[in-house]
Amino acid sequence: MAQQISIPKGTRDFGALEMSRRNFIFDTLKTVFKNYGFSQIETPAMENLSTLMGKYGDEGDKLLFKILNSGNYFDSLNETEVKPENIKKITNLISEKGLRYDLTVPFARFVVQHQNEIQFPFKRFQIQPVWRADRPQKGRYREFFQCDVDIIGSKSLFNEFELIQIITDCFNKLNINIIIKINNRKILYGIAEKIGFPKKFVEITVALDKIDKIGKEKVTEELLSNGLTIEAIEHLSPIFEVSNNFSDSILVIEKFLENSEIGKIGVEEIKTVFDYIHVNNIETEIELDLTLARGLNYYTGAIFEVKAKDVEIGSICGGGRYDNLTEIFGLKNISGVGISFGADRIYDVMSQLDIFPKDIQTTTKILFINSGLEEEKICIKLAQKLRNNNISCEIYPEKAKFDKQFKYANNKNIAFVVIIGEEEIKNNNVSIKNMTTGAQEIVSVENFIDYFCLKN
């Protein structure tokens, strides 16, 4: 019996069409990133677990893929230690590396390690896969690409505004209607202070971050299970019920946090960002969402989340300000802010809306029909001249019936077919067939390259 083959759940193969579409997304994002002066870097797929652990909260740590040490990793274990309750200790003994969970923590490590080579503020973008041991479901994968842009080494809130511009430009070019939700972690900390549970800040933000997924009632249950009182949760009611209109929201939260110093700082920061937005007439729909929390613990200021308006799929882009991330690696007083585009979810949105360019899979513009060895020699020379002019072409690899070769061209959406037979060789010309219109022209070999250069 043949072996049944498969790939791990939460991963995918990408064929020619999928890769053409994915590259369209990547190329679009790269163009925008470069227009704003960002430079590209890459980091290894795996990092030391000491780099990754403790940076994403307890829930994030559980989703890290650990890599077993090479060789006989059981040599470091005592048989008496191999018990379920010792799983964390055992993991530390047999695994020193893990697959990266996101691109931000490796970026912070990169900045610290290469600080003497970097010009601050440093504007970088990075497009690479990340891995999470999550439960696969629609729009959620175990292996997926992130496309990050970060500005590090500057505390200016202008950077937050520039990221909003980048978000707007990227999704305009991709033809996706979006809404950008903005909040500030200082506001959330002020809220935790106001209701009397500043030490439960992490639990409060983790729960609030789920409100769109599980609703207010389930969030309330989670907060109660984490030790908050009914009275404290009732104090959150203005936050749950406030309008998403900026003017209304900011008045409510200013009054709510009038006695919280850190909360007032967050309010002023968010007002500054919205001043940039209003003065510069950003047309994208943007709202202040006081329940937006972004579950990752390293965020300290503004936070962003982007959702597609026409498809239910969760956030397709998100990020925020982090003031202390490099400090955990020994470099203090380096603030950064960044966003991450979820390429896989963007792909799913564009597929569902059917908004990819129709000719996106076309990789070959011209096919040379193979009529035999003598004709093939001429095709090889002409094909090389086309490629020297950056015009994509290919030669059918063997002599075959014309119908078969034309079918090949049609199946690959090749625009033109070049035919060279005895008659064409005799008259030093070629026949060119437009596969869309069916029209056929005779062109001299001398004018052949110019003919396609004008059409390219």
Description:
It is a single chain. The protein is an alpha+beta fold and 456 residues long. The chain folds into two domains: 16-353, BirA Bifunctional Protein, domain 2 (2-Layer Sandwich), CATH 3.30.930.10; 366-455, Rossmann fold. Helices cover 42% and strands 18% of the residues. Strand 9 (302-308) and strand 10 form a beta hairpin. The longest helix is centred in the first third of the chain and has 20 residues, at 16-35.
User: Going by CATH, what is the homologous superfamily of the largest domain?
Assistant: Bira Bifunctional Protein, Domain 2
CATH top level of the largest domain is Alpha Beta
CATH architecture of the largest domain: 2-Layer Sandwich
How many domains is the backbone divided into? 2
Number of helices: 18
Largest sheet: 8 strands, mixed
Spans of 5+ residues with little confidence (pLDDT < 50)?
Answer: none
**CATH topology of the largest domain, which one?**
BirA Bifunctional Protein, domain 2
Secondary structure tally: strands: 16
**Distance N to C terminus:** 52 Å
Strand content: 15-25%
Structural class by helix and strand composition = alpha+beta
Gyration radius, in Å: 28 Å
Shape: elongated
Spatial strand order of the main sheet: 1-5-6-11-10-9-7-8
Into which percent range does the helicity of residues fall? Answer: 40-55%
Chain-averaged pLDDT: 88
